[in-house]
């Protein structure tokens, strides 16, 4: 069975959208990635850190889905990473209200021996120093995928660029791609980012879908227009988890198969936004996933006779 190594925050989130507000709930990049990748029946392990304040019942939600937590460090007396954000009315943009690194500030990751040979490494959003340390510890994976965000571009750009130079795929949103490259055109931005290292660039555009760039090729996956959008938190990570999980399952990292991975990622992310936090992902069933994949196909299929 393929192995997927997941790095990222396991967190408390407090979220405000036009539809409501939550207190501290389960969140974190690695949490969403793991919940999403769990749909592919692969062997996955999370490398992260939490404080003693993190409830055991949250960890059980991951264990119940066969996510290995041997490399999830618990810091005695420490507080878990906390993030709070507020979405604008368009639900595509948000302001970060608070980021408390807490136990993440001094975290030094240890990849378990059994996962050093993972085929796919998914470096989810967290400190680039932790992402770098994980790259140093693994043995020649088939593919390293990196996700990051503006917070780390603002605070750790030089280190982040060194991480970017060592990965095969980067997934970022459109605003971040523009910030990182200094280019408004996403085509030019993707080219500049590929020049920094990754062979593949995925640019996520929220409700406007996702673009995959490789050499001179380009692929676009729409986001499914949804009736219910309550909370986009975690959609990017859920996308990344679906993308990496599908590639781990199929063991094929060609451009052609990556197109399918983008569709699987988009499909999973479309569920994530339907309820607050991880709620929808926790109740998601395989049948629903398959039905919606058919909707994705129908949305983009058309026949034109080109002379
Ligand atoms: P997304 O909506 O996909 O960008 O991911 C939101 C998740 O990322 C939330 O659950 C947060 O806990 C987590 N998060 C927010 N800010 C950061 C950060 N600076 N580093 C790592 N994870 C973060």
Textual characterization of the structure:
The radius of gyration is 18 Å and the shape is globular. The strands form two sheets. Strands 1, 5, 6, 7, 10, 11, 12, 13, 14 and 15 form a ten-stranded mixed β-sheet that branches. Strands 2, 3, 4, 8 and 9 form a five-stranded mixed β-sheet that branches. It starts with a strand and ends in a 7-residue tail after the last helix. It is built from eleven helices and 15 strands. It is of the alpha/beta class. It has helices at residues 29-37, 56-63, 128-137, 150-155, 157-164, 174-181, 186-195, 235-250, 255-272, 279-283, 286-300; strands spanning 3-7, 11-17, 20-21, 25-27, 43-51, 67-68, 72-75, 82-87, 94-100, 120-123, 143-147, 169-173, 200-204, 210-214, 217-221. The model has no long low-confidence stretch (mean pLDDT 96). Helices cover 37% and strands 24% of the residues. Helix 3 runs parallel beside helix 5 (157-164), helix 8 packs across helix 9 (255-272) and helix 9 packs across helix 11. The chain binds adenosine monophosphate (AMP). Adenosine monophosphate is lined by residues 9, 11, 13, 27-29, 83, 99, 125-126, 149, 151, 233-237. Adenosine monophosphate (AMP) is lined by residues 9, 11, 13, 27-29, 83, 99, 125-126, 149, 151, 233-237.
